[in-house]
């Protein structure tokens, strides 16, 4: 038995399907089948996501090369959709790193009303992104397409709340089943190893 299998066997009783994570009824296509994919479903206005984010930032830095991680904004209503568009507009403008924390601070911590295109354009302008430039990206076909893909991803994951993690398009971990935020990441590690063994690597 390899060390990986020993680790998996040792933790198999700790994390139980249906209690700590949910197996999805149908797999969600992943972006790169050569990697084990972890997707975080989140919303900038969610206080729970806000508390989870620093832990995720530390955790993702230590992920091995065979694991890919990315965030996917959940789109459950019009306000969340506007914030998802802002997320992908920041990505299109190559200012994701600059805007991620300010958006979280403004929406989850400070409860600012940034629910319209104009509100968000003015907010981005505070961080040296011209309003016209933001609006062009915000309304672009590529950004709107990514928002639709994010909405479809959350729907396929059967997510009913955030934060949630989707591991390799097969499993969903949420705060209720996963326990604490730290436990959610431990369950993700467990499922990553489970997928690694399934791949035979």
From TrEMBL:
Family: Belongs to the thioredoxin family. DsbA subfamily.
Subcellular localization, as worded in the UniProt entry: Periplasm
Every Thioredoxin domain range: 1-193
CDD domains in the record: DsbA_DsbA
Protein name, entry field: Thiol:disulfide interchange protein
Keywords linked to the UniProt accession: Disulfide bond, Isomerase, Periplasm, Redox-active center, Signal
SUPFAM superfamilies membership: Thioredoxin-like
Listed GO MF terms: disulfide oxidoreductase activity; isomerase activity
Organism: Hahella chejuensis (strain KCTC 2396)
GO cellular component: periplasmic space
Disulfide bonds: 46-49
Segments passing through the bilayer: none
Signal sequence range: none
A matching Pfam family: DSBA
